[in-house]
UniProtKB/TrEMBL annotation:
Organism: Vagococcus bubulae
Entry protein name: cysteine-S-conjugate beta-lyase
Residue span(s) of domain Aminotransferase class I/classII large: 41-391
Pfam families for the chain: Aminotran_1_2
E.C. no: 4.4.1.13
Requisite cofactors: pyridoxal 5'-phosphate
C-alpha cells in the first residue's frame, strides 16, 4: 500500500473513529463477559467504531434540548425519507402503506415467526448464517430446517435442489433469507433471488428477507431488494431493513417491516399490538430520518473505508498467512476467513483468543461446517485490522 493510499483510507477513520472503551459498548466493554478475557482486541459483534454523521448528532441534540420524550408520532417527512432512500440508493419503489415498525430486526423476526407460523411448523434458513436466525426458530418452538450453502469456485451459493427437497419434505412454512448474506458476504444476484422466490411461491412458503446489510455493497456489485424484482409475488413477501447497521444506530431500537400484502399487514398489525404497545422509537426515528436526509456522503466514504480495510486485510494475510482463505466480500462490513490450513477446529480458541488475543466471531457460531472460520468486523480503524492479522501470524507461528 502506498503512502497516498494509506492517507486516503485513514481520513474517514481519523475523522470518525472513537475510543469506545468504558462507554458501555458491548463490543469493547462486553469482551470479558463474552470471552472471559478483557485484554482482547474486539473485532466481533457487528457494530462500528465510527461516530454517526454530524447532522445526525445535531438533530438528536435538538430533540434533547427540547427535553420532552413523551409518546410520539412518526411524521410524514420520516416516511418520505425512507421511500426516497430506497429509491435513490436501491432503485426500489416502496409504497408508504407497506411500512411498519419494530424495535429491531431480530425482534421483528421473532414476531413474524410467531404471527405467521404455528408451533412445530417448519422454518428454513441457509447455513452458515447470522446465529440469531437459529434462535428465532428454536426459541419459538418451530422446526428448524437447515439448507447448507455450497462452496463452488471459491464462492458460496444456494443448493436449490436441497432447498426444494427439504421444503417439500418438511412442509416448510417460512424461509428467513439474509440479503446481503452475513457472514459469507454474498450479494445475491437477481437470478438467484428469482429462483428462491419461485420455489417459495410454488410451495406457499412465506419469504422473509432480512436486508439490514443492504447499504454495504462493494462497488463491483449491485444490491437488489426482493421488493424490486418483478417475478416475486409481493403477497408472499416481508422485507426487513433498518438504518441501524448502515449508520451505527443499533441501540436506538428502530427498524422497518415492509409488508406489501394488505392481508398480511392486517395480521401483523393485530399481532404486534398484543406484543408491544408502541413499536417506534423517538430517537430511532429522528436519527434514521437525519441519516437518510444528510448521511449519503458519510456512507459512501464509510463504504470506501470498509473496502480499503478489506483490501488491507487481504494483502496482510497474503504476506503473512498466504494459505488463509479470505472470501470475497461483496456486501456487509464483515469478512469471512478460513484458517483450516493453519489451525484445526479444536485449537481455534487457543490460537485466536488465548494466543492472538482477538475477540472475533467464530465460524462455528454460524454453522457447524464452519469450525475453522473466523468473521472479522472491518468497521474499525485500519490499524486494528492490520494488528489483528499480525497477531494471528505470531500466534500461529508460535503454536
Ligand atoms: C443479518 C442481521 N440481521 C439483524 C441484525 C441485528 O439487527 P437488530 O439489531 O436490528 O436486531 C444483524 C446484526 O448483526 C444482522 O447481521
Amino acid at each position: 500500500m502506498t503512502k497516498k493510499e494509506w492517507i486516503t483510507m485513514t481520513t474517514f477513520a481519523d475523522n470518525y473513529y472513537v475510543d469506545r472503551y468504558q462507554t458501555d459498548s458491548l463490543k469493547w466493554d462486553g469482551v470479558e463477559e463474552r470471552f472471559g478475557d478483557k485484554e482482547l482486541l474486539p473485532l466481533w459483534v457487528a457494530d462500528m467504531d465510527f461516530q454517526v454523521p454530524k447532522e445526525v448528532q445535531e438533530k438528536m441534540q435538538e430533540r434533547i434540548n427540547h427535553g420532552v420524550f413523551g409518546y410520539s408520532l412518526v411524521p410524514d417527512e420520516y416516511v418520505n425519507s425512507v421511500i426516497s432512500w430506497q429509491k435513490r440508493r436501491h432503485n426500489v419503489l416502496i409504497q408508504k402503506e407497506w411500512l411498519r415498525f419494530c424495535t429491531g430486526v431480530v425482534n421483528a423476526l421473532h414476531y413474524l415467526i410467531q404471527g405467521f407460523t404455528k408451533e412445530e411448523e417448519a422454518v428454513m434458513i441457509f447455513s452458515p448464517v447470522y446465529y440469531p436466525f437459529y434462535d428465532v426458530v428454536n426459541e419459538n418452538n418451530r422446526q428448524l430446517v437447515v439448507s447448507d450453502l455450497m462452496i463452488e469456485k471459491g464462492q458460496y451459493s444456494i443448493d436449490f435442489n436441497d432447498m426444494e427437497e427439504k421444503i417439500k419434505h418438511h412442509h416448510v412454512k417460512a424461509l428467513i433469507f439474509c440479503s446481503p448474506h452475513n457472514p459469507v458476504g454474498r450479494v445475491w444476484t437477481v437470478e438467484e433471488m428469482e429462483k428462491v422466490a419461485l420455489i417459495c411461491q410454488k410451495y406457499h412458503v412465506l419469504l422473509i428477507s432480512d436486508e439490514i446489510h443492504q447499504d454495504f455493497i462493494h462497488k463491483n456489485h449491485v444490491f437488489t431488494s426482493f421488493l424490486g424484482i418483478e417475478k416475486v409475488d409481493l403477497d408472499q413477501l416481508i422485507v426487513l431493513n433498518s438504518a441501524s447497521k448502515s449508520f451505527n444506530l443499533a441501540s436506538l431500537l428502530h427498524s422497518h417491516v415492509l409488508i406489501p400484502s394488505d392481508e398480511m399487514r392486517a395480521t401483523y398489525d393485530e399481532f404486534i399490538t398484543t406484543k408491544i404497545s408502541n413499536p417506534t422509537s423517538l430517537m430511532g426515528v429522528i436519527a434514521t430520518q437525519a441519516s437518510y436526509e444528510f448521511g449519503e456522503k458519510w456512507l459512501d466514504e464509510l463504504n470506501q473505508t470498509i473496502d480499503d480495510n478489506f483490501d488491507l486485510m487481504t494483502q496482510t494475510f497474503k504476506a503473512l498467512l498466504p494459505e488463509a482463505i479470505v472470501y470475497e466480500k461483496q456486501g456487509t462490513y464483515l469478512s469471512w476467513v478460513d484458517l483450516s490450513y493453519y489451525v484445526t477446529q479444536d485449537k481455534m480458541k487457543e490460537i485466536v483468543q488465548d494466543k492472538a488475543k482477538l475477540a472475533i466471531d467464530y465460524g462455528e457460531w454460524f454453522g457447524k461446517q464452519s469450525g475453522t472460520f473466523i468473521r472479522i468486523n472491518l468497521a474499525t480503524h485500519p490499524n486494528n485490522i492490520k494488528l489483528a492479522v499480525q497477531h494471528l501470524e505470531k500466534a500461529i507461528k508460535n503454536s
